[in-house]
Design a protein that fits this description.
about 200 residues, mainly alpha, 10 helices, 2 strands
């Protein structure tokens, strides 16, 4: 008895957590009150709005790739559920780390806040990969007839995320603004259809 079960409930729960995490980001947005100029007051709070946009985009990309990952999985087991839960823990921390970073931009603790932000992203993408790595080592969890070459290519592509976030974390020790560059490159790459999937379909 392997205690395997369909992925439906895991996907529904994950979708709900990701949707709530994206929504909670808005609760961190400041609501300026001023008698001298609302637009100027809003402009002064630009770090909050920039952090919201970046984190919302990242969660959307995470949701899209999580959805795509489960195209290749037909069943889960207790270990897969646990790894996926660890991934979701760091998704829900996005609201906290985003607000923390936005509140400390240009202040003495800016680097500390940025390190916490990047470290959370490293762990989030690491556990996403752990979920995938575990699943592909269990043939009974995969959809029948899944192309093994495609699985290997996807594994390499998914590993780019924690690697680039780790690079961003290390750059942050030197420069907080420049640490955003690897993150932006990652957003652009993962917002596009997976190159390995396109390559597999063309064959």
């Amino acid at each position: 008895m392997h205690n395997h079960r369909p992925t439906d409930r895991l996907e529904y729960f994950s979708d709900a957590v990701l949707a709530i995490a994206a929504t909670l980001l808005a609760t961190e947005l400041p609501k300026p009150e001023t008698d001298t100029g609302l637009l100027q007051a809003i402009a002064n709070q630009w770090p909050h709005y920039a952090a919201f946009a970046a984190s919302f985009l990242f969660i959307c990309i995470a949701w899209s790739n999580h959805h795509n990952m489960f195209i290749y999985l037909k069943q889960t087991d207790q270990y897969l559920l646990s790894l996926n839960s660890l991934f979701l823990i760091f998704v829900t921390l996005q609201s906290f780390t985003t607000g923390l970073l936005a509140r400390h931009v240009g202040k003495p603790d800016e680097q500390t806040a940025a390190l916490i932000y990047h470290a959370t992203l490293v762990l989030m993408t690491f556990f996403y990969n752990c979920t995938w790595w575990y699943a592909i080592k269990k043939p009974e969890l995969l959809e029948e007839g899944t192309d093994k070459r495609l699985i290997r290519l996807l594994t390499k592509e998914y590993a780019i995320a924690p690697a680039l976030h780790l690079v961003a974390l290390l750059i942050c020790l030197w420069s907080v603004p420049f640490s955003i560059v690897p993150v932006l490159l990652l957003y652009i790459y993962f917002a596009l259809p997976r190159a390995s999937e396109k390559k597999a379909k063309s064959k």
